[in-house]
Amino acid sequence: MKLARFFKDGLIHYGIVEGEDVVEIEGSIFGSFKKTAVTHKLNSIKFLAPCEPSKIVAIGLNYKAHAAEFNKPLPEEPMLFMKPSTAVIGNGDEIIYPHHMSHRVDYEGELAVVIGKKAHMLKKEDARKYILGYTCCNDVTARDLQGKDIQYTRAKGFDTFAPLGPWIETDLNPLNVQIETYLNNEKRQDTSTHDMIFDVYHLISFVSCVMTLLPGDVITTGTPSGIGKMKPGDKVEIRIEGIGSLVNTIRN
Ligand code: MG
């Protein structure tokens, strides 16, 4: 099931995507909900980020080949950083290039996990029950600032640096799906999540042993190799098998 959040006729709605349509639902995607009789064409709605996270916990260096392209040793445990909720944008929105501070802004295509219920101190084998579903994330990064600062907060935290979407797919095996990134329709990243150093369930358990996860929180699980820079006017697409495509453009 594909759960979308969208803007239509001046109001925010949630719905289930079915083919070229979205069926409005009533209730909560984190509790119980049911379909209504109201349906819209997908091309008539404005997609919003599919959830409103209180926090985005991101994982650095979680693919072997990506660690190699940075000449970094493989981590012994997951490396965490955070992106602010104010960085979130949805499918079709624009990433704003922060020229006032950065001259190197990169895409990072990633599988993102959306938490379904409050989670604290989970065992790995229980993690699945706390996951609502999965979406695409672009962990946009000011690479020059990441190198300059010890912390990642500035490099990863600019407004518009956390595109999420286009929707939440609730039925997905996160252990083996293909992640592809296209820059101006040219493929730049293409790796299976099978190549992760720490898998999704390990990550959810690990993060929940640090901080309580709330419904709608997002864990973004690291990028494969093939990262690269973007410039104003570029179009970037994160495509994940079984989910769909998150498309954004870059602007000044
Ligand atoms: Mg990343």
Keywords:
SH3 type barrels, 252 residues, mainly beta, five-stranded mixed beta sheet, single chain, twelve-stranded mixed beta sheet, binds magnesium ion, 4 helices, 2 domains, globular, Fumarylacetoacetate hydrolase, domain 2
Tell me the CATH architecture of the largest domain: Alpha-Beta Complex
What's the main sheet like? 12 strands, mixed
CATH superfamily of the largest domain: Fumarylacetoacetase-like, C-terminal domain
CATH class category name of the largest domain = Alpha Beta
Low-pLDDT windows of residues: none
**How confident overall, as mean pLDDT?**
97
Number of domains: 2
Strand content: 35-45%
The ordered H/E elements are: EEEEEEHEEEEEEEHHEEEHEEEE
Query: What is the fold named in CATH at topology level of the largest domain?
Result: Fumarylacetoacetate hydrolase, domain 2
Give the helix proportion (percent range).
10-25%
Distance between the termini: 36 Å
Radius of gyration: 17 Å
Shape, principal axes of CA atoms: globular
Number-wise, the strands total 20
Ions, cofactors and other ligands present here are: magnesium ion
The computed structural class is mainly beta
